[in-house]
Specification:
By secondary structure, the protein is mainly β. The protein has one domain. Helix content is 0%, strand content 44%. The protein contains no helices and ten strands. The chain has a four-stranded antiparallel beta sheet with strand order 1-2-3-4, with no helix packed on it. The chain has a four-stranded antiparallel beta sheet with strand order 5-6-7-8, with no helix packed on it. The protein has a two-stranded antiparallel sheet with strand order 9-10. A hairpin with a 5-residue loop joins strand 1 and strand 2.
Amino acid sequence: MALDAAGNAYVTGPTWSDFPTTRGAFDVTFNGNEDAFVSKLNSEGSGLVYSTYLGGTGFDNAFGLALDAAGNVYVTGVTNSPDFPTTPGAFDVTFNGGRDVFVSKLNAAGSALVYSTYLGGDFPDFVFGVQLDAARNVYVTGSTGSRDFPATRD
């Protein structure tokens, strides 16, 4: 969960059923098995500003989110969906096997996927948290069982 400067609450997690979505949200259709969701509640907690599914036909579970100053939402979780939504030019647009981490960015209105990528290797990979720095670089923490997890020397 995260709060913005106006006191609106952002929550994420998994759902296995019909879940309240809002008109104009990025994805208003349950995609099957288990989808992640991202919801923004007003500061009074009395209504949804937006609510969207995020997932493919497999099992998708969101574990963390972070906000930038413009109100964009960065969501991370795990997926085994070969059709999880990715964006052109993303780091990795191909499911690698097992369970991959996903890192996705929704616009401030919750109506569009700005960026979305897989992050993983040939065995299950997991994510524990996500943070942004002042330049909006995204940092994720997790664990991997993959022999070919993408890594850098530094």
